[in-house]
Design a protein that fits this description.
- By secondary structure, the protein is an alpha/beta fold.
- The chain is built from 15 helices and 13 strands.
- It has a 6-stranded mixed β-sheet with strand order 4-5-13-10-11-12, sandwiched between helices. A 4-stranded parallel β-sheet has the order 8-7-6-9.
- Helix 5 links the parallel strand 6 and strand 7.
- Helix 5 (140-152) runs parallel beside helix 6 (166-174) and helix 12 (330-344) packs across helix 13 (350-364).
- The longest helix has 18 residues, at 211-228.
- Bound molecules: pyridoxal-5'-phosphate (PLP) and zinc ion.
- Zinc ion is lined by residues 8, 10-11, 13, 24, 26-27, 39.
- Residues 8, 10-11, 13, 24, 26-27, 39 line the site of zinc ion.
Length: 414
């Protein structure tokens, strides 16, 4: 386990650990209500592993050495992460790419990358002796908190937009979370959660605000790097809403680079829907911060935010990596769901499938070279939003249970 301290991402001030301090108090004075998080705290590990685990070592032990926890026993006994990095031959053939992999984070226990952040935040809550953790969420972060909380015996209170897909809502309720459906946007839910945590003394997991959300998600990058070994990925495509997954991936590669075990980190390409593209727009306009998108909308509900809370760090991390951002239309996202499923066996929700549409766009724009080693981070399972997937397939009419009808249908569709 790693000892650590915090550094303010805005002013560089350093702080020790204090459960009541989620952001830099100096910079928090500049926080606008509803704006990107000011004074976000970044974890600086005081000591890093100096060798890769050998073949017999438990690679989880290697990963946990990068986590800011005083003791591994605080990690809930819940199988988060360690997801496969799959070579995807059929998709490689289809796209004419030789070096393409898919990091299948749909396999996390609650079905999304968000489990990684929730595992660490709940571990920290246990370390601090906190009984209730709250979060605002488009759906998956809340579900992840509810799932990990259930596994660890920690109470989850969640604030989701009333329009969150039904499967996510039912999953949340089944895990036993206290659920507030907010008649408003995700951004409204974010603000309400901030106020509720201040009033009721709950520990706030809000993404981009709680520093351990980035730290938890960095395990995706550590796993990718461990799978590649001394060689490394050139590009990772990341579906982006608030920008915390992207910053988590960046932090994982940054921590690894700091060990000296790998040289350099991949370029990170953010993929955003056209209707919710504040970060992509800022990248294209070379702006330091984002312009909010009032009424942001997309079929990729998980990527729909008016003001990306982690915008400042996410923009920095994309630029530091030498990466970029692409936008994709809702039609491209929906069409990518069956294309991804048919060429990889991975059924993703719109946010997850968006990376395939994003890769196609990045190839067209020359942001990715065909010979590069490319990783698609697929962040959420399609089972959470079959309604969106249904718009890209045709459900057949029922047939009589007769072999002739089967033969006839086969002939007509041949
Ligand atoms: C499946 C999925 N993919 C991607 C994202 C985007 O992550 P971030 O908001 O950290 O950019 C989310 C966020 O809810 C998500 O649930
Ligand atoms: Zn500061």
């Amino acid at each position: 386990m790693a000892s650590f301290h915090f550094r303010c991402a805005d002013c560089g001030a350093e702080y020790g650990e204090d459960p009541a301090r989620l952001v830099c108090p100096r910079c928090a004075a500049r926080q606008e209500r509803g704006g990107p998080v000011r004074g976000g705290l970044e974890v600086v590990l005081d000591r890093l592993p100096s060798s890769w685990p050998n073949a017999t070592a438990d690679s989880r032990e290697f990963l946990t050495a990068f986590l800011p926890l005083s003791d591994p026993r605080f990690l809930p006994p819940y199988p988060v992460g360690n997801t496969p990095l799959m070579p995807v031959p059929a998709l490689r053939d289809r796209l004419g790419l030789r070096h393409l992999w898919l990091k299948d984070d749909t396999r996390n226990p609650s079905g999304s990358t968000k489990d990684r952040a929730s595992l660490l935040v709940v571990a920290k809550a246990r370390e601090y002796g906190i009984e209730t953790v709250a979060t605002a969420s488009t759906g998956n972060a809340a579900t992840a908190l509810a799932a990990v909380g259930a596994a660890a015996g920690v109470r989850a209170v969640v604030f989701v937009p009333a329009a969150a897909p039904k499967a996510k809502l039912i999953q949340l309720l089944s895990y036993g979370a206290t659920v507030f459906r907010v008649d408003g946007s995700y951004d409204d839910a974010f603000e309400l959660c901030l106020d509720a945590c201040a009033k009721f003394g709950w520990y706030n997991r809000n993404t981009g605000l709680n520093p351990f959300t980035v730290e938890g998600k960095k395990t995706a990058a550590l796993e990718i790097a461990a799978a590649f070994g001394p060689e490394r990925a050139d590009v990772v495509l990341v579906p982006t809403g608030d920008g915390v997954i992207l910053s988590g991936v960046a932090k994982g590669f940054a921590d690894l680079t700091a060990t000296g075990l790998v040289s350099g980190a991949p370029r990170l390409i953010a993929v955003q829907p056209e209707g919710s593209a504040a970060i992509a727009r800022a990248i294209h306009e070379r702006a330091d911060s984002v312009t909010p998108v009032p009424g942001a909308h997309s079929i990729a509900d998980s990527l729909t935010v008016e003001t990306p809370r982690n915008a400042i760090r996410c923009l920095r991390d994309i630029r530091t990596s030498g990466g970029s951002a692409v936008t994709v239309s809702d039609r491209q996202i929906v069409d990518a769901i069956p294309r991804l499923a048919r060429t990889t066996g991975v059924f993703a929700e719109p946010a997850g499938a968006a990376v395939l549409a994003g890769l196609e766009s990045a190839l067209e724009q020359g942001l990715v070279e065909r010979g590069e080693r490319i990783v698609l981070l697929v962040t959420g399972t399609g089972l959470k939003d079959v309604g969106s997937a249904a718009t890209a397939v045709v459900v057949p009419e029922p047939i009589e249970p007769s072999l002739e009808v089967v033969a006839d249908r086969l002939e007509r569709t041949a």
